[in-house]
Amino acid sequence: MTDEGLRRLSVPLASLFGVTTNSGEEDVLGRLRNLKTHINDRRPSRHKPITLLWAIGRLAAEQERTGDHLVEWRTFREEVGPLLRDFGLPNSRVTPQYPFWHLRSSGLWDVEGIDTHEGTPTPSQLAAAGARAGFGKDAAKALRRSLVRAEAIGLICSRHLPDVDRAALLERVGLAGYASASGELPDREGSVPRRRHTSFRPDRDARLVRHIKEMYDDACQVCGARVETMDSHYSEAAHIRGLGGPHLGPDQLSNLLCLCPNHHIEFDRFAIYIEEDWTVRRNATGVVEYELKLHADHVIEQDHIRYHRALCGHR
User: Fold this and answer.
1) Which of 22, 67, 273, 281 is the most buried (most CB within 10 A)?
2) Which residues contact 39 (CB under 8 A, 6 or more apart)?
3) Are strands 132-135 and 200-202 parallel, antiparallel or unpaired?
4) Which residues contact 272 (CB under 8 A, 6 or more apart)?
5) What SS3 class is residue 311?
6) How far is CA 235 from CA 92, 168, 223, in A?
7) Do 266 and 219 share a structural domain?
8) What distance in Å separates the CA atoms of residue 114 and residue 112, rounded to the nearest whole number?
């Protein structure tokens, strides 16, 4: 393929392939769910989902403050190439030009500045053309919404990257807070007052912690277990939508659960999630293991449950 086979464009390439990037929330999540990936040695390639997480990380960091969601090829190669090397399939070639180019067929991704119907452009051709790529405007708009972004990240990780070190990858793409339900210590103000130490920490209301534990007599709302100590019992107050960033959930009784240490860890690391009917499912298998125990005076906000479920990759 020669450079003469390439020409500059003033319109997104997705339109040339009959794919629209007019993506509402449902459309974005549906396209992520059904993302087609190359099969490498009978295993789906990780190039596309890793690239999408990188692009979501850029949106979350508001690097495209001008509203331009496209990134030049040279920047893309420098940032995505090392991710493909470190988190791609073993023995997989590092070819950032493939997701840069082929994600356009997803309906979420635009490529501008270059066109060819003869295969994937080479890195030198992409550089010479000044090609740019990234989320289309509608997809980017949807992914700036916190719930959609949380669900997209959870969906990509659970469906397309189940064998990847989630925490390590999310940290690399600037989404470390999404590796757990509790989130990171934020460096900005949120819905809960923050006290300045060496960093900003959410001020948890100790009265609410005592209240939720007393309400359930230290019994886990998932399994019912009461962890015994020498002279009492032990339980943990778990926020459903974490106080830490990027979640910035409220410190309210409607956002709290009383859990044993084991189920607190499993809830925080997305091993289990809660359905709208209060059944508790194992994320890896989808099997219902428990029914959440609820006190008559404990009203849980379903929006918080939905947010946590989204982080697990489910609606």
Assistant:
1) 273
2) 45
3) unpaired
4) 222, 263, 266, 280, 281, 282, 283, 289
5) helix
6) 45, 29, 12
7) yes
8) 6
* 292's tokens: 């959440």
Helix (H, G, I), strand (E, B), or coil: what is residue 75? helix
For residues 10, 13, 18 and 19, what is the CA-based torsion angle, rounded to 10 degrees? Answer: -120
Residue at which a domain ends, from 134, 150, 179:
179
Q: Do 20 and 168 lie in a common domain?
A: yes
Query: Do 9 and 158 belong to one domain?
Result: yes
- 111 with 13: CB under 8 angstroms? yes
| DSSP letter (8 states) at residue 157 | I
Question: Could you read off the pLDDT of 27-85 as tens digits, one per residue?
Answer: 999 999 999 998 877 888 999 999 999 999 999 887 545 556 799 999 999 999 999 99
- CB atoms < 10 A from the CB of 149, how many? 20
Are 23 and 114 in contact by the 8 Å Cβ rule? The answer is: no
- Which among 139, 101, 127, 137 is positioned nearest to 16, based on CA atoms? 101
**Count of positions (residues) in the chain:** 315
Q: Which domain holds residue 300?
A: 194-311
Q: Please give the DSSP secondary-structure letter assigned to residue 156.
A: I
Residue 18 resides in a domain? yes
pLDDT one-digit tens code per residue, 230-286: 999 999 999 999 999 999 999 999 999 999 999 999 999 999 999 999 999 999 999
